[in-house]
Specification:
The complex is a heterodimer of chains A (about 325) and B (about 260).
Chain A: E1 11-20, E2 23-33, E3 38-42, H1 49-56, E4 64-69, E5 72-73, H2 78-82, E6 85-88, H3 100-110, H4 115-128, H5 144-156, E7 162-166, H6 174-189, E8 193-198, H7 201-207, E9 210-215, E10 218-223, H8 225-231, E11 236-241, H9 247-257, E12 265-266, E13 272-276, H10 280-293, E14 298-304, H11 308-316
Parallel strand pairs in A: 3-8, 3-9, 6-7, 7-8
Antiparallel strand pairs in A: 1-2, 1-4, 4-5, 9-10, 11-13, 11-14, 12-13
Helix pairs in contact in A: 3-4, 9-10
Chain B: H1 2-20, H2 22-43, H3 54-83, H4 86-91, H5 99-125, H6 134-161, H7 165-181, H8 194-202, H9 204-216, H10 229-232, H11 234-258
Helix pairs in contact in B: 1-5, 2-3, 2-5, 3-5, 3-6, 3-7, 3-9, 5-6, 6-9, 6-11, 9-11
The complex binds adenosine-5'-diphosphate (ADP) and magnesium ion (MG).
Magnesium ion binds near residues 49 and 166 of chain A.
């Protein structure tokens, strides 16, 4: 062990590589997740998020690099790693024929709990994830959000110190997503270390202490959510006009409230204008106040938060691949 | 010790599924009934077996064919678990590396027990009888089940290689049909032409059929001894296949399951 006062990170990866034939899924990925913190791995479809999670949870072998989880080498001692982790994969891996309770009890038994301990833990988790009422019904009848919660509960059965959640809210409606965020926040407050993958900047912002943006298997940016937003994608104030003749007047107002180095973007029909701003709320109310004093007719006005697309646009100069999942409601 | 618990937990899960998904059960039970009735009534009068009724001859063949198909349930079940990510969840747990496959193959024996029982009842209806001792008959059933167990390890391995229930179904039909037809299941091996006859004589489906006929007392006195060694020593030859199949496919499948890909 290295003589150091700092505890080793709960998750550490160095130079992870994985190729599938011609496809390079991971191209030298480094990660550090300090004990008790949350790291979001943010990237579009195909960026390599699932591959990274699968290697660190011992499901997949790496072609190069190394990883440790809770101080245990992933490649050398996969069995000991499995005793210390909980995984909720990209698609809820719950047995549809079993009831929610049976799913959790089965996992508890497989973690080596006694029958009684597994039963007690299942009851606790059903309660905690608001599944008590549905707990004795087969999972087949559960909604997507309920399945997700059950899958997450499954990852927590043995109270593992390190948790991996692969796109926990993809495909959920905004309400279920908010519920799940609440649950995840509670978990983290209890000191669990979490590696979370997501396609949504909003989600990373809500949940993570640190964010690593990955694209084509490599990290292209890292920092706190605030760092990233400040440097990469500031919020924009956007105005939609009824009459394109007023575009120039509005552009002047926007420029006055925009960030010092920002240019006003005027859409192709000269009716949709936007500008990056430093302080979203102040800028929005300033713009609204000035425009109200005129008689310019507005169709819409709003604060648009930076999305993963904005981040990518800034970082790589190209937009993300279109995804088949709905954009998160901000 | 904990490996045994893991196997029991997995087997218990599969038993719950057997109870709750009656559609599968209906298929498991109906197809042997259909086969017995079809063969007994369609071919029953046109195929002549020396010194015996065709129905008496036929039942052991249908037993063998049905337990071969029983393995398909193992394959399809594992393929489905792979597709749904359930296998990956198990693989991420600190549990025995062989328990998921062992628990599955063991619990699938239940399917085969049920279909053997149903076939026997249908057989009794169409005139089949156990004419040997009860002990021999039990040995016959046991041999069929052990043979079926070996087949389900082959299917388990295939399902881990190609995790698609559809592909597993189609592939196993393409293998199982020729294997069960180029055999002594539905006609005597001796009546097949040249190379097919040799194949049939060495085909383990023939030996398990032959052994069942012997153990159920379905070979009437005066029937000429088979000429090929595997059929003369049908039980032994079948058991050798069982040991070889399990010895090869269980380690292959478990390694495939356990190894990170
Ligand atoms: N089993 C596989 N065979 C071939 N290519 C794969 C396989 N799994 C992933 N890939 C490829 O590796 C890249 C990264 O995939 P993945 O880690 O699943 O990305 P993400 O989870 O970020 O969407 C993608 O280009 C994907 O097509
Ligand atoms: Mg993924």
């Amino acid at each position: 062990m290295t003589p150091s006062n700092e505890p080793p990170p709960a998750i550490r990866a160095r130079g992870l590589r994985k190729t599938y034939g011609e496809v390079v899924a991971l191209d030298g990925l480094d990660l550090d997740v300090p004990d008790g913190t949350v790291l979001a791995l943010l990237g579009p479809n195909g960026a390599g998020k699932t591959t990274a999670v699968s290697i660190l949870t011992t499901l997949l072998s790496a072609d190069g690099g190394e990883g440790t989880v809770a101080g245990v080498d992933v490649l050398a001692e996969p069995g000991r790693v499995r005793e210390r982790i909980g995984l909720s994969g990209q698609f809820a891996a719950v047995d549809e024929v079993l009831t929610g309770r049976e799913n959790l009890q089965m996992i508890g038994r497989l973690y080596g709990m006694t029958r009684r301990a597994a039963r007690r833990r299942a009851t606790e988790l059903l309660e905690r994830f608001s599944l008590t009422e549905a707990g004795d019904r087969p999972v087949k009848g559960y909604s997507g959000g309920m399945r997700r919660r059950l899958d997450l509960a499954g990852a927590l059965v043995a109270e593992p110190p390190v948790l991996f959640l692969d796109e926990p809210t993809t495909g959920l409606d905004p309400r279920s997503r908010n519920e799940l965020w609440g649950v995840i926040r509670e978990l983290v407050a209890d000191g669990t270390t979490l590696l979370l993958t997501t396609q949504y900047l909003e989600e990373a912002d809500q949940l993570a202490d640190d964010i690593v943006v990955i694209d084509k298997g490599r990290a292209i940016a890292r920092g706190t959510a605030d760092d990233l937003k400040a440097s990469l994608g500031r919020s924009r104030v956007e105005v939609v006009l009824a009459d394109s003749a007023e575009a120039d007047a509005v552009a002047a107002v926007l420029a006055a409230h925009g960030a010092a180095d920002a240019e006003v973007d005027i859409g192709p029909e000269r009716r949709r204008l936007s500008v990056q701003v430093d302080d979203g709320v102040a800028a929005l109310s300033g713009v609204l106040g000035e425009l109200r004093a005129t008689d310019i007719e507005l169709r819409d006005v709003g604060l648009r938060r930076p999305t993963l697309d904005d981040v990518f646009l800034t970082l790589t100069g190209s937009a993300t691949e279109p995804t088949d999942t709905p954009e998160v409601a901000a | 010790m904990s490996a045994v618990t893991d196997i029991l937990v997995i087997a218990n899960r599969n038993v719950i599924k057997i109870r709750r998904v009656p559609e599968v059960l209906i298929f498991v039970l109906l197809s042997p009934i259909m086969f017995v009735l079809l063969f007994a009534y369609v071919f029953g009068n046109s195929i002549d077996i020396q010194g015996s009724s065709y129905r008496e001859f036929l039942i052991a063949g249908i037993f063998a064919q049905t337990v071969m198909f029983g393995g398909t349930f193992t394959g399809a079940g594992i393929a489905e678990d792979m597709q749904k990510g359930i296998i990956d969840r198990f693989r991420s747990l600190p549990m025995s590396r062989s328990a998921v496959l062992t628990g599955r193959t063991l619990s699938d024996v239940i399917y085969n027990v049920m279909s053997v029982v149903i076939m026997s009842l249908t057989g009794l209806l169409v005139g089949w009888r156990i004419r040997g001792s009860i002990l021999d008959a039990l040995a016959g059933y046991l041999l069929l089940l052990v043979f079926a167990y070996a087949i389900s390890w082959i299917m388990a391995y295939l399902a881990l290689l190609v995790p698609s229930p559809e592909v597993i179904n189609n592939a196993s039909f393409m293998v199982i049909f020729p294997l069960t037809f180029v055999a002594n299941t539905f006609v005597p091996a001796e009546s097949l032409p040249g190379p097919l006859k040799t194949f049939a004589e060495w085909n383990p489906v023939s030996s398990v059929t032959q052994a069942s006929r012997e153990l159920f007392g379905n070979i009437p006195p005066g029937t000429p001894e088979p000429t090929a060694w595997p059929l003369q020593n049908a039980t032994l030859y079948t058991l050798i296949w069982v040991v070889v199949i399990i010895g090869i496919f269980a380690p292959l499948a478990i390694r495939r399951y356990a190894q990170p890909r």
